[in-house]
Amino acid sequence: MPSILRNTAVTLIAVIALYWLTGFYGTALRDPRVLDGWVLCGGMCAQLLFHIRKKLPASPLGKAASWLKVHVYAGYFVIAAFLFHTSFSLPESLFEWTLWTLFVVVVVSGLVGLYLSASIPAKLQEQGYEQITFEQIPAARQKLSREINALVLESVTQTGSPEISEFYVHRLRNFFRKPQNMRAHLRGSRRPLDRICNELDDLERYADAKGGKLLSSIKTLVVAKYDLDHQYAFQGLLQSWSFVHVPATYCLVVLSILHVAIVYAYSSGVQ
Amino acid sequence: MAQVQLAKRPQRWDETLGRGRIPADLVALILSSRIFRDINPDDFPDDLPLEGIIANDCTIRQLARGDFVYREGSYQTSIFVVLNGGIRMEALAGTGRAAGQGVRANKHSRFRSLLRGKHAVTQPEPVLLERYDMFGELEAMTRTPSSGTAVAHVDGTVLLEMTWPGARELLHWSDAFRHRVESIYRIRSIDLALMESTLFSQSDQETLASIAKHCSFERHGSFDWTHRYQRESASGRDSARTMEQEPVIVEQGHYLEDLFLIRSGFARVTERIHDRERTVGFLERSDMFGIAEINEGLRASGLPHARQGLRAIGYCDVVRIPENIVEKYMRLDSQPEANPEAHASVRSLHADQSMRDFIVDKRFINATKAMVIDTTRCVGCDDCVRACAATHDGIPRFERRGPTHANLMVATACMHCADPVCLIDCPTGAIHRDAGSGSIVIDDNMCIGCATCSSACPYDNIHMREVRNADGAFLIDEDGANHLKASKCDLCAGQSSGPACQRACPHDALMRIDIRELNVISDRQERI
Amino acid sequence: MKLLRYMSLHRFARRQNKIMRPKRETISWWVAIFSIGVLMLVIGYAADTRLFMPGPMTTAHSTLEQCSDCHSNVPNGKFGWLHTIVATASPRKDSSSCLKCHKMGVAALNPHSLELAKLDGYVRRLDSSPVKKLLPIKSRIRNAVFPVESTFQEGVFCATCHKEHQGEDFELKEMADAQCHTCHRVQFNNFHSDHPKFDNYPFRRRTRINFDHSGHFKKHFPEWRAKKTNSAAAPSSCTDCHAVNPGTGHMKVKPFAQICSSCHLDQIIGTERATGPKGIALLTLPGLDVDTLKQKNVQIGTWPEEAEGELSPLMKLLIGRDEERRKILEAIHELDLLDLTEATPVQIAQVEKLAWEVKRLLHALATSAPAEILKPLMHATRNRIDQRLIAQLIARLPRDVLFGAQREWLPGLADEIGRRSDKKLTSSLVSTPNSNSAKPGNSASNKATNSDQKLDTSSKKQAAKKDPVERAASKKAKSWRIDPFGHLIKGNRSPEDSPDEQASDDAERQTEKIGSDTETFVDRKAGDEKEREPALQEVDAESWAELGGWYRKDHSILYRPAGHADRFLRAWLDFTAELFSEADGNLAASAFKELTGKDAQGQCTKCHSVEAARDNKRIMKWMPSSYATRESPFTSFSHEPHLGLVKDKGCLTCHDMSGAKGYLETYKGHDPYNFVSNFKPVKKEICASCHGQRKARQDCLLCHKYHVNEITTPITKTKIPEK
């Protein structure tokens, strides 16, 4: 993994260089907060460039993968710049707290997103789920829903007994209607599925051959739905973090601009 | 803004690909020439007259001495006839060897020629072509890059260029023409095969000629294998059954009389385990089959038996060289022990068996620019699709889905086949190979929306889309049907920085690769 | 351009297709707009702009309510700061806000708050020190990247180092060593290992007070104790003489009265003096060879024949207060005034002048303000007339002492002087007014004196026969009469309203009368007066003035020192030191030498050292070294925290008696930097045994000060409540 080493080394060198430079800056009768503040500002602007690059997917400005790498490593650097800028201490006023919190939210959501992006696809792959894009999931769910409907109707017409349809009405209709048991999925638990399956097994015990066949097909659909929900949960998670990361970034940009304006208004001409 | 606009559907011969039509008097003159004299115009259907083909699908090229017709390695799909003057064909031994593999092939061959640098390479003498000689048929029929360079030998050279649609019609309708072309094709194939083979690189021109006398040319399968394959794959049978449909070239265990040189197409190398055949790998142009067995046979002074089987994937042209001839003329240092690399009997795919099956069965061996998505990396951000849409007027040219094996998804984007079957039946030649890059592109102006290519594509990677005018209104014809045009990945032709999808992928999950480089994927496990 | 094309494509794609996912973008934009809205509301509803403060201010500054109190460029009002985005901030202005309360002098914003000239001096001294001089590479890189020079030129503003808004209990004065390294070449972080060795610390010069510790410890104190008769005990510990200054923790020497006077007071007031007068003669009527002068018909008026003293140096200085008068003194320098038989006529003439100058001096002291006498001398050294100094030099001489002396020695002085000045006036009328040599600031009387001296030779020849012009002049003077105290009082007839002829007869009569009076005065014995007042003779004047003060003895007016820190002596020492010059015949120098001589009255320089100043003047060192007068304002050592640490060895832990010889010898010279100390220098190792050993602080500012001037807080201006 030489590229990880290289990138980490470059980032570390940059951080150390910044440390030295701020030291120099401070002893050169200037305010080091000005230097690391602008470095932080520049770093944040560079991070924003990635956002712009993502908005222009077809732009010829290099590979998005390289951009992401720069985004991530520059992000680490920006975290260091932020720590320098805050002198490794907590803020003292409400406004600063807001800024600080937003920055932390952006950073943490970014790191979480990075972790999720790296882990979830591989995890889903490992678990052997069929590849389905997030956008296709609702359609697939509807298809399953239609199929179960058809099966239940079939059960009514074929067996004439209401058990299966009643079970469907009470237990399965909601299950098939929308994503369910999200928390269990995220925990990796299969307990809800097992519960339904057990109940189906209970039904099966008293069903005739036809009913048994129908129930086993229903079970297949239930498992398929459960797996679909699993995909939905994780793929949703994969999308969701950026719904924190990006809006928080926008807010952070607004507050940062205000911060710079205020700092310069009250700077006393410090360099 | 009008939602629809009534317009006449474009027809074949409405547009010519940047060339004028040949005037009628000249057409008559051409048809009266020796080469077309034996073609019977009555063989042609009424809506496709011979004169029309000549006038619309052919063109006259006038060249001064030294002008290139095409260069070695370039992609050209026309058959040429010398009408006046002369053409010099310069074929450099070995340079065309890995042809069919796109740009990468050239790199490879250059590398290989370096490897062989210390050996005296026979420089074949240029062949001079005279009036009414035909050339270019090899490339046109096999859809491979040129194996030689064609240069005008004298001033005032005039060529008749039959573009592929025209040549195809002639080949199809006129038996006389087809027979003539094929005979030339066979002879040249043998010559080229010997010339490109490393086995005889020390032999001179005369020796090669004498070897050629003993060799034979065979075609297994057919050029347009795609429909059959589509039927097969639609039937949903497993890969073993698919394999059984493929014509056998060599049966495992049989007596091996000849050495096989693959001329074009692909061949599957199989091994029989118990009752089932297992894919070991595949062979492509310039690969040999049987050399190890022959060598062993020589040493054991017994009869060589094929240890593995050989089947044509789709179609496969082979040149057979009798065993005793091989024995007689083979270069001493071309013993497998001396140079195992050059004699790898099988192109292994650096992949496990199931992946190998997946690739060969799905015919992805054809791919030079397959869109392969690593599903362990893909987060489904859809940036690739967005990038594609952004470079193609808002309409993406692929879908982020497709056959998946293990962690690899081959998305439904044109994979720019080594053997692009979509080209075969295009009536206008709108879908064609870019002469420089070798990628398959569609000329929107020439496409008449006949959907031939779309239905020919074994991978379902060409889509027909509705045509809109500049205002966004759909164009419809007299019958109320939408105007269609074929649409597929063009590898972002015209973009200097390559395919946008690959560049847009932030997680390095999407790659456009030659399927033979799958190892690139497996090696590429590291992340940011 | 290309990018633009992509953007338009992108927009097109968005319109045409639903594959774009604008949800996140929409949310983000709304969040941004929302946050702007919230900010506007918060700022709008906030009471003031304290919201923007990055942190609370220190307690001391917490009463500064308005941002504009310090941020001078920010107008008040919630959105005032928006203005300053375009207006430039002035750090100088902001710093001047600080300096309103923290007064630091004019050079407050210079490095070390020092005037640049002084700073240059210190820099040069550091440059000449043997410690390594090359700027460390780190600093050189720093200077290349962020030049400091330009910042210096602008000034080192308060906020450069003192950064507010870091919390209520933030220590604004705390500085890191690195901040000193900005300019200083010798950079280190460990006092113990890297601080340069102390260079003869703390002795930069000899002590101002010549106190030989070693001599006192070994000789004087034992002797004193041996006498036993003395009531006060000799000091036995350091603290008998040294004490800690409670405010600062610095050491101070106890005052003379407490620690020295029991032995040295007698030396000052002259009790122990065996020979010579115990007072210093300010005025002495010099003895003249009156007989010879009479023979030679030199008109000096009355002169007591008994007078036999010499001109005292102080008097010489007073007489020789200007160039012309100094020439008189130079001319008679070699002459024995009591035997003028051998003297040349020229010399005699000078003696005559001298006699008149003496008289004039006495007369002037008694009649006009003494300031007039001292003015020419003062002009030589300073531009302004120091009334206080004059008072201390002469003016405290009681007038009665003066009059008593005059009555006894020169009873007709007023008349004589009146006549003499008339003559002088007339002389000046006929003489060519060639008074270029006169100093520009001189009074009219000085001018007249000058002319008088110029005309001396001619007036002498004409002395016998009455010059008609002279007569006319004396007639003019008739309008002035002299009161019993010698004051010139304007007569009832002013010269304006009386015709000259009428007045001339009166004047003649008057002059003759005074002339005859003079004759009688000369003949009279000086002892007559004493005989007439026997009651006052019982106590010797000198003994009477035992506790100091003025007295008259023989033909001198003397001053006996009134104890330590006698103002008269101190004033004269300072004054003559100031006028001191090595040049030959410098009257101030001889006066100074007289006052500082081994047998000088008061014995001031026995302890108070004399130093040579620039241009060879002298400086008296009155006060012992103190925190305020220390040579290096940068270094400060507070004894107090260390007192508990020294244990058995006490002060000797650091102040080791060296036993080096020659302490006293160096006081013979006047160079304070050529010295031998009683003590060994304090070695760095002593400090380093705690500092820099993880026992005690070791930062630069522990011992060194940045702001060398004292920082003062002005007292508030409170108006007196008048109602």
Helix content of chain C: 40-55%
- Write down the oligomeric state: heterotrimer
Poorly predicted residue ranges of chain A: none
Order of helices and strands of chain A: HHHHHHHHH
Q: Describe the sheet with the most strands of chain C.
A: 3 strands, antiparallel
The N- to C-terminal Cα distance of chain A equals 42 Å
Radius of gyration of chain A: 27 Å
How large is the share of residues in beta strands of chain C? under 5%
State the distance separating the first and last CA atoms of chain C.
81 Å
Find the structural class of chain C using helix and strand composition: mainly alpha
Please provide the count of β strands of chain A: 0
Largest interface, per-chain counts? A-C, 45 and 60 residues
Helix content of chain A: over 70%
Strand order of the largest sheet of chain C: 3-7-6
Q: How much of the polypeptide of chain A forms β-strand, as a percent range? A: under 5%
Radius of gyration of chain C: 39 Å
What is the average of the pLDDT values of chain C? Answer: 77
In short:
The complex is a heterotrimer of chains A (271), B (528) and C (723). Helix content of chain A is 82%, strand content 0%.
Descriptive overview:
The complex is a heterotrimer of chains A (271), B (528) and C (723). Chain A is mainly α and 271 residues long. In chain A, 82% of the residues lie in helices and 0% in strands. Chain A is elongated, with a radius of gyration of 27 Å. Chain B is of the alpha+beta class and 528 residues long. Chain B has three domains: 24-208, Jelly Rolls (Sandwich), CATH 2.60.120.10; 211-348, Sandwich (Jelly Rolls); 356-523, Alpha-Beta Plaits, CATH 3.30.70.20. In chain B, the strands form seven sheets. In chain B, strands 10, 11, 12, 13, 14 and 15 form a six-stranded antiparallel β-sheet that branches. In chain B, strands 2-9-4-7 form a four-stranded antiparallel β-sheet. In chain B, strand 19 and strand 20 form a beta hairpin. By secondary structure, chain C is mainly α. Among the domains of chain C are: 2-45; 280-537, no CATH class. Chain C has 33 helices and nine strands. In chain C, the strands form four sheets. A three-stranded antiparallel β-sheet of chain C has the order 3-7-6. Chain C has a two-stranded antiparallel sheet with strand order 1-2. Chain C has a two-stranded antiparallel ribbon with strand order 4-5. Chains A and C meet through helix 1, helix 4 and helix 9 of A and helix 1, helix 2, helix 3, helix 6 and helix 9 of C.
